[in-house]
Amino acid sequence: MRQAKIFYKEDKAGVLTQHDDGSFTFRYHDEWFANSDKQGISLTLPKKQQEFHSKYLFPFFFNMLPEGSNKQVVCKHMRIDTDDYFGLLMTTAKNDSIGAVRVVKIDNK
């Protein structure tokens, strides 16, 4: 199991988890979900529910990934398998992402 904190601007919005079977869960933090002033991080992950499940990386997060030669360079230099979308996401979206959402790896030791 691997996890990442999801930040919206500078606030912790939730946690993205990749389970051992490869499926994913995104869960809004209780405080974020309870605060009516906080919006959903994506139109496809609305605050109508607190937890979402998917067999694959959610399209919202998948669309944050680099493509083409940029993906190849990152994967080669960071030694990430080109099919490890979650690993690539945690590497590329932790500091420098387009938009307000950042993805920061949680070290589960």
What does it look like?
Strand 1 (2-8) and strand 2 (11-18) form a beta hairpin. The mean pLDDT is 91. This protein has one domain. It has 109 residues and is an alpha+beta fold. The longest helix has 11 residues, at 68-78. Strands 4-3-2-1-5 form a five-stranded antiparallel β-sheet. The chain has helices spanning 30-34, 59-62, 68-78, 85-92; strands at residues 2-8, 11-18, 24-28, 51-54, 101-106.
Brief sketch in words of this structure:
It is built from four helices and five strands. It has 109 residues and is α+β, with helices and mostly antiparallel strands.
- Can you give the mean pLDDT? 91
**What level of helicity do the residues show?**
25-40%
- Adjacency order of strands in the biggest sheet: 4-3-2-1-5
Distance between the first and last residues' Cα: 11 Å
The major sheet is characterized as:
5 strands, antiparallel
Query: How many distinct domains?
Result: 1
Q: What is the CA-based Rg, rounded?
A: 14 Å
Quick one: how many beta strands? 5
Counted by DSSP, the helix tally is: 4
Structural class: alpha+beta
Approximate strand percentage: 25-35%
Q: List unreliable stretches of 5+ residues.
A: none
What does the overall shape look like? globular
The string of secondary-structure elements, in order, is EEEHEHHHE
